[in-house]
Amino acid sequence: MTVVGTDRIRVRTDADTIHVTLDHPETRNAVSRTMYHELAFVLSQIARRTDLRFVVLSGAGRVFSSGGDLRELRDGLPDDYVTDYWQRMSGTILALRAMPQIVIAGVSGAAVGAGAAVALASDMVVVESDARMRFTFTRIGFLPDAGTTVLLPRLLGPAVARDLLFTGRWIGAEEACRRGMIARVCEPGTLDEAVQSLLTELRYSPAGALGMVKNLVDASALSDLTSGVRAEGVQQYAAAASGEYREYLARVLELMAQQTAAPAPPATDPDTDVTIKTH
What we know:
It is built from eleven helices and nine strands. The strands form two sheets. Strands 1-2-3-4-6-9 form a six-stranded mixed beta sheet, with helices on both faces. The protein has a three-stranded mixed beta sheet with strand order 5-7-8. The protein has 279 residues and is of the alpha/beta class. It starts with 8 loop residues before the first strand and ends in an 18-residue tail after the last helix. The chain is globular, with a radius of gyration of 18 Å.
């Protein structure tokens, strides 16, 4: 069975590896509801392919993902938000953890909010040294989602997880690797080579052994992640009903409009906030 891509998800098969690319330059690969559903569709096909051992997940252009698309929140959350949220999360974040293939996320530029969560849900994350991650949910009065309230404490410990989620500060590749958030750091412009080198290492081990190690490492974590994802969706819906949330969102949307009218700086510019339109 050939894995079919979508409007926003590009796929390319290379022997035992399939490359999955978030590709929506208009939003810097924002993980909108549409993007989530399309990614879930692609992952469901891959999970059934016993001949594929590895998935390489990346973002097109200079940014892995700018996070969730705030424009979808302009008019509030739909009545079916919690149900739709669970479908999106079970088809993506939880699917990445449960699928038999080893998933490698390659991050360049920036990975923000829910986009960073998609990367962290992979088995191994390789990041270029000048790339950064950020979780800015609370800056619009919203709550973290995509499993970040479970993934970050598990990877970093509660203290650092609170720091990142409370402040929304950037965490660079070197710090992220030192703290155990990601697996490897490579030089700028060498991401493809670094991922290929990792794949070569992994091919020394049989697929069955790698799959069983993945299951053993995730045995308890997957249950916690599932519960956490469910709780995030319910709490998000409640938070979105608050006046505080609407006030902060309106402020960010106004800044979005101002940025749209101005020339866009490079995504990796340290003075650029690539998250202003995302959560």
